[in-house]
Amino acid sequence: MTEDTTSAQTSIDNSQNPQRSENRQPDQLRTIRFQNNIAPHATGSTLIEWGNTRVVCGVTIEENVPRWMKEQKKEGGWITAEYSMLPYSTHSRKQRDATKGRIDGRSQEIQRLIGRAIRAAVDLKKLGPRTIWVDCDVLQADGGTRTASITGGFVALSLAIQTLLDKELLKESPIINGVAAVSMGVVNGIPVLDLDYVEDVNAEVDMNLVMTDKDEYIEVQGTGEKGTFHHQELTRLLELGSKGIKELIDLQKQAIAQGL
Asked: Which of 140, 142, 217, 251 has fewest C-beta within 10 Å?
């Protein structure tokens, strides 16, 4: 059984930007929906549908910690992530990493980013000696799979933590921050929020932003894909990203409340 929550799109005049998916304005997110409990064997899970990007985020928990933590006598627990794009998630078939015998560089970079982002949400000492796995599997890719994985991963994490609380395996929640991520970029000379695939491949500047619900930065990734960019453009992109993060945090709260 699944539960879902859908973002409410604001009715605005889109005549100036008919080229954007969903006829969005430069500062507008795509429609976002969460379907919770999509993977019944996971401790917490959600399917995040972000425009035409769809990612299943599932959290499982092991009652032990990595060997390196034991060897270094580190207190608390650990959070790690795995990310993969299914073969049919893109227009042309993507070969599985298992077939190649190794994780490709992009997937490795993204799963490390997801892990860093989700760890920023949790007091690892309060988590206790256990490992949380955040698995993100892309069903359909249309730009923003890493930001969708982080945003959906936090929802799945929150549902999993509540399960531990309900089972009295935790006395208090170790979650200390909300965490969400969004993309920004400069497309045709215009700073825009939340790039789909067509915008991403044509962007002059491409950025990803990860923030907490306390308006704190976790990670800023930015590249001038077709040249350099100015301080004013960077400032505008960060403003757009911060606006998007606040909207995402609200949507996450709605999804988590419906999943409890």
From this structure: 217
Of residues 159 and 228, more confidently modeled: 159
What's the total number of domains in the chain?
Answer: 1
Q: Is 124 a domain residue?
A: yes
Q: What's the domain range around 166?
A: 30-259
The whole-angstrom separation of Cα 168 and Cα 170 is 5
Classify 55 as helix, strand or coil: strand
Sign for the pseudo-dihedral over CA of 20, 22, 27, 33:
negative
Tell me whether strands 217-224 and 3-6 are parallel, antiparallel or unpaired: unpaired
| Model confidence at 197: pLDDT above 50 | yes
What pLDDT shows up at residue 14? 37
Give DSSP secondary structure letters for 100-147.
Answer: HTS--HHHHHHHHHHHHHHHTTB-HHHH-S-EEEEEEEEEE-SS-HHH
Residue with structure tokens 């993977």? 39
